[in-house]
């Protein structure tokens, strides 16, 4: 089983004919992902990478039955692209774009929620269910199928964790890159819940970073859920100075509970197996599953 995307997902690419959309759509198709078309306003009726191009998401949904979208639209127009997808009935909207204005995302976040769609990102690497669907920019060859779910704010640490898990002779059910912006569609807690309640996921790796309360909220949910499914956690940014943004726009320590030390303490108190180095993720997963 999997969460969010699988071999039956029908995926469209918004920003299909642009350089980023073209490059990553080609990688997704090569991986075996069921890309059914794409959207570029003004280019409807053309073919690109052997797939049909549509002027609007509504046209794409009507013609292909698409249920999932991945967005490579420039920041100034990306929030509109998100809302267009939700309006057209797309159920899973994965937004790769970085740098979307916060005011735009507040509006888009509310719009998507009101229509019952699920937004992943923005500023994320996407979602992958190994061997079935790669809807994002992650290196597919790193991921092998197995029983470990991954939820991560960091793109590169998603790949690193997957590589370590695979090297331990294990594999991945679904990896979800939730993104590191201040306003994202799916929180750490929501992604963790998807994986904890997935019957084929035996263990979850939860990778967070300084800033905000997402990891603490996820840890408290995990404790309250009473789940016996092991969760291995890591928080990036332990050496970051207070008050300085580190990498992601949302990675800034605003208070005492935003630090890596505080987050790790809360996670441990809630029963999560916390590692202090990302190099230990794979070993800890193997240990808790032994």
From TrEMBL:
Amino-acid positions noted as binding CoA in the UniProt annotation, renumbered to this chain: 17-20, 43, 96-98
Keyword Ligase: yes
InterPro entries: Cit_synth/succinyl-CoA_lig_AS, Citrt_syn/SCS-alpha_CS, CoA-bd, CoA_lig_alpha, NAD(P)-bd_dom_sf, SUCC_ACL_C, Succinyl-CoA_synth-like
All copies of domain CoA-binding, residue ranges: 4-100
SMART domains in the record: CoA_binding
Enzyme class: ligase
E.C. numbers: 6.2.1.5
Superkingdom of the organism of origin: Bacteria
Pathway(s): Carbohydrate metabolism; tricarboxylic acid cycle; succinate from succinyl-CoA (ligase route): step 1/1
GO cellular component, one term: succinate-CoA ligase complex (ADP-forming)
Active site: 248 (tele-phosphohistidine intermediate)
Gene Ontology biological-process entries: tricarboxylic acid cycle
UniProt subunit comment: Heterotetramer of two alpha and two beta subunits.
NCBIfam families in UniProt: PRK05678.1, sucCoAalpha
Role this protein plays: Succinyl-CoA synthetase functions in the citric acid cycle (TCA), coupling the hydrolysis of succinyl-CoA to the synthesis of either ATP or GTP and thus represents the only step of substrate-level phosphorylation in the TCA. The alpha subunit of the enzyme binds the substrates coenzyme A and phosphate, while succinate binding and nucleotide specificity is provided by the beta subunit.
Family as reported in the entry's similarity comment: Belongs to the succinate/malate CoA ligase alpha subunit family.
Name of the protein described by the UniProt record: Succinate--CoA ligase [ADP-forming] subunit alpha
Organism classification: Bacteria, Pseudomonadati, Bacteroidota, Flavobacteriia, Flavobacteriales
């Amino acid at each position: 089983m999997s969460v969010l995307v699988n071999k039956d997902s029908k995926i469209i690419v918004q920003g299909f004919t642009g350089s980023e959309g073209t490059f990553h759509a080609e990688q997704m198709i090569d991986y075996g992902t069921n890309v059914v078309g794409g959207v570029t306003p003004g280019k409807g009726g053309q073919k690109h990478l052997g797939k049909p191009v549509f002027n609007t998401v509504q046209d794409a949904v009507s013609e292909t039955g698409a249920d999932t979208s991945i967005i490579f639209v420039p920041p100034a127009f990306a929030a509109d692209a998100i809302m267009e997808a939700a309006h057209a009935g797309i159920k899973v909207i994965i937004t790769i774009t970085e740098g979307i204005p916060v005011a735009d995302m507040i509006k888009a976040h509310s719009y998507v929620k009101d229509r019952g769609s699920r937004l992943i990102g923005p500023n994320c690497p996407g979602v992958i269910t190994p061997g079935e669907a790669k809807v994002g920019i992650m290196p597919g060859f790193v991921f092998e199928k197995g029983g470990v779910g991954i939820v991560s704010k960091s793109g590169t640490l998603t790949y690193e964790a997957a590589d370590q898990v695979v090297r331990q002779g294990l594999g991945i059910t679904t990896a979800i890159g939730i993104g590191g912006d201040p306003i994202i569609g799916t929180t750490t807690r929501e992604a963790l819940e998807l994986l904890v309640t997935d019957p084929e996921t035996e263990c979850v790796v939860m990778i967070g970073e300084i800033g905000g309360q997402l990891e603490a909220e996820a840890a408290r949910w995990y404790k309250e859920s009473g789940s016996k499914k092991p969760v291995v956690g890591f928080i990036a940014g332990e050496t970051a100075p207070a008050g300085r943004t580190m990498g992601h726009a949302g990675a800034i320590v605003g208070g005492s509970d935003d630090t890596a030390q505080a987050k790790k303490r809360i996670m441990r108190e809630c029963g999560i197996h916390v590692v202090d180095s990302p190099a230990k993720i794979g070993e800890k997963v193997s240990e808790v599953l032994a």
